[in-house]
Amino acid sequence: MAAIKICSWNINGMRATVKTGDFQSWLASSAPDIIGLQEVKAAPDQVVPALWEPLGYTAYWHPAERSGYSGALLLTKVAPLAVRVGIGVPEFDIEGRLIEAEFPGFTLFTVYFPNGGKGDRLPFKLRFFETFLARADAVRATGKSVVFMGDVNIAHREIDVARPDEAKKGTGFLPEERAWIDRFADHGYVDTFRALHPAVEGAYSYWDAWRERRARNVGWRIDYVFVSEELRPRVTSAFIESDVMGSDHCPVGIELETGG
Question: Cα 212 to chain center, whole Å?
C-alpha cells in the first residue's frame, strides 16, 4: 500500500525560522507530503512561496488579524478536494487557529489550540476545545475519517512532561485540561504517538528556553497527531523529530497508509 507522511510543527515565527535556514533544511530533509504549521506569526505576503513551490507544495493560510500573532499554514503536495479556513466562530477565527482540508480517505485539521496563559485564557481555551470537538465529530458523522494535529498546549500524562510537579503549578497540565485528551479518546480519536510508543519516556516536543532546557531535555509533549480510531490500523509510524531546530517546538508526525 502507498503511504503518506504527515507532519505538524509549531514553528513559533516562520520568518525567523526561515531567516536561520532551519525551515528550509527541515523541509528538504524530512519532505512530508502534508504539513501543518502553527504560530506562523506571518501573513502570506511576508513569506515567499518560492520556499516551497519548487518542492511541489501548495499553501493554504489562516493568518491572525493581529499582526505577528498566532496563525496557521497548511502546505501540501496532495491535492485537497476542499479546504475550509477557520471554525466559523469569530472570537476564534480572528486568531488564525485552524485549517480544515478534505483529502481522499480522510479530512485533516491543522490546529493551533489556545494557550491558557496564567489562567486568564483558560475559559477561552476550553470553549475552543468544545467547539473543535463538535466540528470534528460533525465531520465524522458524515462518514469521513479524521486526522487532526497541532500544538494542543496540553501534556496528557506525567510521562509526557519532564517535571510533572512543577507543571501542575500552571496551565497546560491542569486536570480540566488533561481531561480533554481523555475526551478525545472517548470520542474515538487516537493519540498516535502513545498508541505506537506507550511506554517511551523523555519524548517531548516543546522546551522552555529558560536555563537551556532543550539541551537537558526538560520538556513537554504538547504537540500531537490524532486519528479517528478506524484509521489507527493504517498508521505505520508515529514520530517526534526532536533534533530539528528553529523553534521552541519540534515537528511531530505520522506515516499513514492510503491504499493503492
Answer: 24
CB-based contacts of 88, cutoff 8 Å, min separation 6: 135
What is the C-alpha separation between 231 and 60, in angstroms, rounded?
A: 24
Over residues 179-195, the pLDDT tens digits come to 999 999 999 999 999 99
Domains by residue range for the chain, with CATH: 3-257 (3.60.10.10)
- pLDDT tens readout for residues 122-140: 999 999 999 999 999 999 9
Tell me if the pTM is above 0.85.
yes
Distance (Å) of CA 34 to CA 23, 76, 100, 119, 188 = 15, 4, 12, 33, 23
CA pair distance 99, 96, nearest whole angstrom: 9
Phi, psi of 165 (to 5 degrees): -65, -40
pLDDT for position 74: 98
Is 9:37 a contact under the CB 8 Å cutoff?
yes
In 3-state terms, what secondary structure has residue 241? coil
Q: Would you state the cell numbers that stand for residue 176, as one nine-digit string?
A: 480540566
Residues tagged active-site: 151
Comparing CA positions, the residue from 1, 8, 59 lying closest to residue 32 is 8
What is the rounded radius of gyration, in angstroms, for the C-alpha atoms of the chain?
Answer: 17
